[in-house]
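Response to reviewer comment R2.3. The reviewers asked that we include at least one raw input/output pair. We reproduce the pair for RCK C-terminal domain-containing protein here without editing.
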Amino acid sequence: EEKIATKILIIGGGNIGFNLAKNIEQSLESARVKIIEKDKARAEFIANELNNSIIINGNGLDEDVLAEANIDEVETVLALTNDDEDNLMVSVLVEKFSKDKRTMALINKPNYSLLQSSLKIDDLIDPRMNTVSSILKHVHKGTIQTAYTLLNGEYEVIEAEIIETSELINKELKSANLPDSIRIGAVLREKEIIIPRSNFIFKEKDTVVFLAQRDQLSIVESMFRISPF
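Raw output as returned:
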C-alpha cells in the first residue's frame, strides 16, 4: 500500500496553493506543509492565515530556496503557480534533486499534457476541474482512490479505502454519526459490492463510495486520516 504523503512542498501561494494548504491542515493534522511564495506581501498574508504551514518567501526555481525548504526531506512537490512554464520547470528541477519524489504541476494549456511523460511529472492538474479535491486525491493517494464532481462542483463522489487507523474501522454505520450531506452509496469488500444498512460494520480494506457536499470534504478526509510520523 502506498504511503500517504505527509511532507509536502507547495510552490505558489495563490488561491489554489493557499486553499490546499488550509485543507491539508484541517484534514491531516500530522502533515508538514511548506509553501514557497515569491511575492513578499502574499507570503506574509498566507503566513498569518495558516496555523501550521511554513512559508518561505522566494522563487521556487531557485535551487538555494529549494534547499532552504529541505527539498531532500519532502515527499510530494506541488507546483501551483499561475505560470505553466514555471510549474513544469519546477517539476523538472525537483526531479534533479531526487527521483523518488512525487511531482504535480498545475497546467492551463492542454498541449502541455504531451510533455508529462518526457518530463517525468507524476500528475498534471487541470484548474478547470475540482482543483483542491482532485489534488487531495493524489496527495492522499493510497487512501482516497478517486474523486470527481457532480452538479457543477457542488457534490463530490469519493472512493476511499478503510485502513487500520481510520475512524470508521469496526464501527457500525449507524454509529458513524455522518451528517445528512454525506451519504455512503456502496462498499466493496473482497470483490463483493454491498449496499450497507444501519448495522453494517466497516472492516479494514473495505472500499467505501461516498457522495458528499463539497463543503463537507474535510469530514470525509478526517475519517481516513492517519498519523504516519
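The mean pLDDT is 79. The longest strand covers residues 182-189. Further pairs are available on request from the corresponding author.
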